[in-house]
Amino acid sequence: MLRNSDHMAGGPGDPKTGREWWSYFKGWPLRVVLSVLAFFLFALVVTVLDQHVYWFHALFR
Q: What would the pLDDT profile of 1-15 be if each residue is shown by its tens digit?
């Protein structure tokens, strides 16, 4: 749980310790990072399939 730092200099939910930082990062930033990684993995798979699997390549032509 994050400290109630909404009225402090750090702003809302400013994490202070490693555990609090991880609790904060497990929220939306982790979702953003995982979404970007998933997109690049998907793009890599599509690229490899497009170059090496004829029927997959033919789907887009």
A: 555 555 555 555 555
User: Per-residue DSSP letters for 7-58?
Assistant: TSTT-TT---SHHHHHHHHTTHHHHHHHHHHHHHHHHHHHHHHHHH-HHHHH
Number of separate domains in the chain:
1
C-alpha span between 12 and 6 (Å, rounded): 4
Domain that holds residue 37: 23-60
CA distance to 24, 28, 37, 38, 45, per residue, from 31 (Å): 12, 5, 10, 10, 21
Assigned token pair, 42: 């998907």
- Please report the sign of the dihedral spanned by the C-alpha atoms of residue 9, residue 10, residue 12, residue 18: negative
